[in-house]
């Protein structure tokens, strides 16, 4: 049960607010002065404080200052009379979550308190991730079922020499996963070396990985160690390994099998003890079938696979990620933006996030730069996030309010089946595979919609 502390020197307000918030399911504590409230906060877990501004001795703004010193994450909502608006503005600048004018509307109070409690619980989750999970996995944020599956595999494989293949779309945080595995292994004090195979020209990638001897080619004026040598006793992270040429794949396979290699222009075998973690946004099995990736190397890399879910499959993590990045951006930009308002958060949930976590961080940085206050609004978001997506508009076009839900769903299903058949050149077995159903099920549906005689 969440706890709300109500502070007011007028007993009638304490009674009314106690009754109102207790009916909402909160545990309500009351205090008639600022010092009494501070004692409660020091000794009792509190999720939100609801305080009057005008009180004898320590007023609400002064109480806010003291609370910020004790617990900067604790949401404080201030109640003001009309004459105290200037103080309320000052309090908002100092970090108050909201201010409500007396005489107050019950629904407004309930809405503000609910927002405060939700924010407190969210920040507590962030602290948990930064301490408990952060101690293991660094900056990886997530409590969704999809991320729990990732953490489960990471925990099992982290402190082993096993090669790991991380699969995920661009921007999902594959390198963070690799760093988390390294940090939680017995190799944590040895180097973590990363190379993006897609970012290095093919002609240079071999010398980057294996190094070269002096005089190996024009411009090789001195011996250079490659990534494998630098990563000795540690971890080498090969990002976008699917971009590697077939010729270089043979040499990588030898290192994985023998733990030895030769520098470019050299003849001496160099022994290393390196754990390899690879990542790709491609389906390497399909690349093998297409002849673009060696099957033997694929099996060497794919001992344990970790699939990192795209953001659209873990949208319940969005509030945690938003809070994490806002804290990070506060240090980077020197601007304190504490939250995203509900309308803007709806845009975050609705957005498809093709760029995943990286796109989310960029959107938030833009919003923090443009934000006029301490709360991100819809106006601070890119135009493509404010407007319904083509998918949303397409769904609206399909809805027939006159027919009702069942008939509308049938209409959508029929259209999808026709599209699948068209894509499969009317080959039913192929269309069934595209749709993820059996051929007999597809034929039943086709008869249902008059597509078979």
TrEMBL record:
Gene Ontology CC annotations of this record: cytoplasm
Species for this entry: Desulfomonile tiedjei
Gene3D superfamilies cross-referenced by the UniProt entry: 1.10.8.60, 3.40.50.2300, Homeodomain-like, P-loop containing nucleotide triphosphate hydrolases
GO function term, MF aspect, one: sequence-specific DNA binding
Residue ranges annotated for the Sigma-54 factor interaction domain, each copy included: 140-369
Name of this chain's protein: Sigma-54-dependent Fis family transcriptional regulator
Domain Response regulatory span(s) in chain numbering: 3-117
Pfam entry (one): Response_reg
Listed InterPro entries: AAA+_ATPase, AAA_lid_NorR, CheY-like_superfamily, Homeodomain-like_sf, HTH_Fis, P-loop_NTPase, Sig_transdc_resp-reg_receiver, Sigma_54_int
Location relative to the cell: Cytoplasm
GO biological process: phosphorelay signal transduction system; regulation of DNA-templated transcription
4-aspartylphosphate: modified positions: 52
Keywords from the named record: Activator, ATP-binding, Cytoplasm, DNA-binding, Nucleotide-binding, Phosphoprotein, Transcription, Transcription regulation, Two-component regulatory system
């Amino acid at each position: 049960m969440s706890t709300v502390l109500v502070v007011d020197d007028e007993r009638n307000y304490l009674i009314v607010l106690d009754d109102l918030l207790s009916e909402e399911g909160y545990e309500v504590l009351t205090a008639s002065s600022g010092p009494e409230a501070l004692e409660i906060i020091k000794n009792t877990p509190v999720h939100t404080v609801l305080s009057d501004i005008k009180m004898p001795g320590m007023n609400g703004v002064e109480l806010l200052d003291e609370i910020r010193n004790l617990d900067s994450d604790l949401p404080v909502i201030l109640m003001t009379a009309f004459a105290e608006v200037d103080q309320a503005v000052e309090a908002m600048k100092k970090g108050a979550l909201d201010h409500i004018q007396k005489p107050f509307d019950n629904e407004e109070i309930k809405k503000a308190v609910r927002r405060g409690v939700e924010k407190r619980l969210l920040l507590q989750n962030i602290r948990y991730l930064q301490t408990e999970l952060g101690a293991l996995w660094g900056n990886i944020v997530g409590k969704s079922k999809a991320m729990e599956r990732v953490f489960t595999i990471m925990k099992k494989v982290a402190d082993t020499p096993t090669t790991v293949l991380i699969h995920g779309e661009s921007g999902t945080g594959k390198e963070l996963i690799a760093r988390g595995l390294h940090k939680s292994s017995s190799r944590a004090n040895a180097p973590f070396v990363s190379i993006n195979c897609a970012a290095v020209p093919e002609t240079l990638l071999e010398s980057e990985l294996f190094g070269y001897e002096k005089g190996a080619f024009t411009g090789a004026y001195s011996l250079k160690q490659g990534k494998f040598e630098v990563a000795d006793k540690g971890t080498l992270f090969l990002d976008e390994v699917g971009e590697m040429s077939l010729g270089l794949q043979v040499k990588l396979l030898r290192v994985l099998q023998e733990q030895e290699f030769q520098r470019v222009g050299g003849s001496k075998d160099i022994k290393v003890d390196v754990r390899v973690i690879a990542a790709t946004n491609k389906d390497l099995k399909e690349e093998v079938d297409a002849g673009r990736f060696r099957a033997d190397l694929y099996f060497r890399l794919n001992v344990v696979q970790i699939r990192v879910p795209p953001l659209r499959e873990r949208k319940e993590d969005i509030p945690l990620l938003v809070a994490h990045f806002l804290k990070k951006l506060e240090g980077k930009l020197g601007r304190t933006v504490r939250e995203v308002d509900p309308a803007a958060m709806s845009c975050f949930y609705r957005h498809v996030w093709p760029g995943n976590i990286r796109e989310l961080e960029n959107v938030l940085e833009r919003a923090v730069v443009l934000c006029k206050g301490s709360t991100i609004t819809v106006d601070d978001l890119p135009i493509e996030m404010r407007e319904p997506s083509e998918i949303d508009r397409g769904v609206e076009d399909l809805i027939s309010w006159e027919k009702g839900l069942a008939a509308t769903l049938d209409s959508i299903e029929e259209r999808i089946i026709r599209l699948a058949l068209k894509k499969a050149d009317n080959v039913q077995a192929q269309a069934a595979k595209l749709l993820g159903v059996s051929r007999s099920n597809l034929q039943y549906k086709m008869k249902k919609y008059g597509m078979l005689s």
